[in-house]
């Protein structure tokens, strides 16, 4: 069994358990398992670690989809930015290669954002997301691709979420598009 297959097996057990953990504890437990996975050599098939010329040089691939969680690979191009956004579910993000900047925000009463935290993550780092504390932005500040594994408690495809302008003052609802390999 590959490391990814073992990870999927373990997550299936965790997310379908009769006494399933609350979202915050589940996200933390998943993040610990994810950290083990992302620090292994070649934790995912190489075809999911490259950007696709057929998709405007982006890389967004589904690695596993089930009713209780999804796993995807995201390849960030040099300079690529995801403005502040929500996930509306628990999650964990593990960095396979390179570096990425993550900024966390809190929601103000007028639907604008206030920055509260800032990290520059290196390979092997894992970030935890829980509902009501999951607003963040991502930025590949480097000159090479950054590869991450994202794990979420829901399939984000079509899920209604929120995103803000880079300065955090203009909120819009949106739904994520499809992954490239499905």
Write up this protein.
- The protein has about 180 residues and is α+β, with helices and mostly antiparallel strands.
- The chain contains two helices and eleven strands.
- The protein has helices at about 5-15, 25-40; strands at about 60-65, 70-75, 80-85, 90-95, 100-105, 115-120, 125-130, 135-140, 145-150, 160-165, 170-175.
- The chain is globular and about 50 Å long.
Name its key features:
182 residues, alpha+beta, four-stranded antiparallel beta sheet, 2 helices, globular
Give a short summary of the structure.
This protein has 182 residues and is an alpha+beta fold. The protein has helices spanning 3-16, 23-38, and strands spanning 59-65, 70-76, 81-85, 91-97, 99-107, 113-122, 126-129, 136-139, 146-152, 160-164, 171-175.
Helices and strands in order, then pairings?
Elements: H1 3-16, H2 23-38, E1 59-65, E2 70-76, E3 81-85, E4 91-97, E5 99-107, E6 113-122, E7 126-129, E8 136-139, E9 146-152, E10 160-164, E11 171-175
Antiparallel strand pairs: 1-2, 2-9, 3-8, 4-7, 4-9, 5-6, 5-8, 10-11
Query: Portion of residues in helices?
Result: 10-25%
Mean pLDDT: 92
Query: Major sheet, described briefly?
Result: 5 strands, antiparallel
What's the helix count? 2
> Strand order of the main beta sheet, please?
1-2-9-4-7
Portion in beta strands: 35-45%
Structural class: alpha+beta
N- and C-termini, Cα separation: 23 Å
What sequence of helices (H) and strands (E) makes up the elements? Answer: HHEEEEEEEEEEE
For the secondary structure, the number of strands is 11
């Amino acid at each position: 069994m590959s490391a990814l297959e073992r990870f999927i097996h373990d997550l299936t057990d965790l997310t379908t358990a009769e006494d399933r953990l609350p979202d915050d504890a589940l996200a933390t437990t998943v993040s610990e398992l994810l950290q083990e996975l992302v620090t292994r050599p070649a934790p995912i098939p190489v075809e999911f670690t490259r950007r696709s010329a057929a998709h405007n040089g982006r890389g967004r691939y589904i690695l596993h989809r089930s009713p209780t969680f999804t796993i995807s690979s995201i390849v960030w191009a040099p300079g690529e930015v995801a403005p502040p956004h929500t996930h509306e579910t628990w999650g964990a993000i593990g960095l396979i290669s390179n570096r990425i900047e993550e900024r966390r925000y809190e929601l103000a009463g007028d639907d604008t954002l206030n920055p509260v935290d800032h990290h520059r993550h290196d390979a092997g780092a894992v970030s935890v997301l829980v509902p009501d504390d999951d607003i963040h932005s991502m930025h590949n500040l480097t000159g090479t691709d950054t590869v991450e594994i994202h794990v979420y408690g829901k399939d984000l495809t079509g899920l209604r979420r929120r995103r803000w302008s880079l300065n955090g003052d203009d909120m819009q609802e949106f739904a994520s598009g499809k992954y490239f390999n499905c």
